[in-house]
Amino acid sequence: MARDRLSLGASTRAVHSGERQHRLSDAVTVPVYQTSTYVFESTQQLIDFKEGRIEKGEYGRYGNPTVRQAEQKIAELDHAQDAILWASGMCAMTSLLLTILQTGQHMIITSDSYRRTQQFCSGMLRRFGIDVSIVPPGDPDAIEAAVCPNTRLILTESPTNPFLYVIDLEKLVEIAKRHRIRTVIDSTLAAPYNQNPLDFGIDLVMHSATKYLAGHNDLLAGVVVGKAGMIDALRESQGILGGITDPNSAYLLLRGLKSFALRMARHNANGAALASFLEAHPKVRRVYYPGLKSHPSHAVARAQMRGFGGLVSFELDATMAQTGAFIDALELPYMAPSLGGVESLVEQPAIVSYYEMAPEERHQIGISDSLVRYAAGIEDTDDLLTDVEQALKVLG
Ligand SMILES: *Cc1c(COP(=O)(O)O)cnc(C)c1O
User: Whole-model pTM above 0.70?
Assistant: First the structure.
């Protein structure tokens, strides 16, 4: 600034003093670039940018260096060319579907799935004239049987929520290729540590980064990974739809990701130990965990996954109220929705996710009154097992 700084007013000094001196420091960690917009040095630089001769920041909705770092880290973890972060998992999913589907087209989803995804597809997308078929989970034949001439997209979680069905990715890709249909996997429950669907030829993979990727129950974010061209298209649409991740959340995500592999190894160990313990317990009617031989998806899961995660669903030999009493008797897990964080969480889906639904309707989609969803954290395995054992005593 040419003028003597002290001759400037208090407001001008408050805004500008020191600000132009910042330099890249020698910090180990990526800074939080808390900015909503980016400076152009001259009209010529702006013109160079507009004509594609230089790459730089333009405006916060079109990118942020902290966010970009998190995107690149996740892309590498999931063997992808590129990744794009969104404000939440649902924001990633809804923006992705709005970007690739058009009125008059048809998509296929599975019955066992995140309830909000299901609501978006069968509620909102139908309102825009997009036809939706809902098929049973983990069953490529059921998917193929639902294919119509205007089918453009197959979307499934793998594993699904809450029953943890796993789709045979190789078969799914074969069917999709034959019918020229795009495939999207919500891989949240596996996370890139346990499977990389892109390696099987899946087009796009979505994660709720709120869960295992961030891993500390302290932020919401979503991510989509895939080929650079498709992620570019999503970036274009993000500039319009606006569901960006805040740089502070991106920083927390980056921090959480550094311990991702260590955390996942413990989540896998805890999930597997809990599932085996529960399956052997007389008060437990059924356990859903793809690592167990009794799970219908076990063979497929073993063939394409490296581990099976921390989420275990099970039905007790109990009423709705007794199931609540069991959950209340647990001392280590918090009672809260979500999964994938360092703290174990537990919930009764009939109450947390389906309370408004009539019991008959709930039962029809398999959500029984005694269903428990236990998301094992990274606590010591023995402590979690001892706690579950003591809590099961309330069932007599
Ligand atoms: C949590 C979750 C979502 C939604 O993600 P948010 O980050 O909560 O918006 C979508 N799919 C699955 C499988 C999830 O577990």
Answer: yes
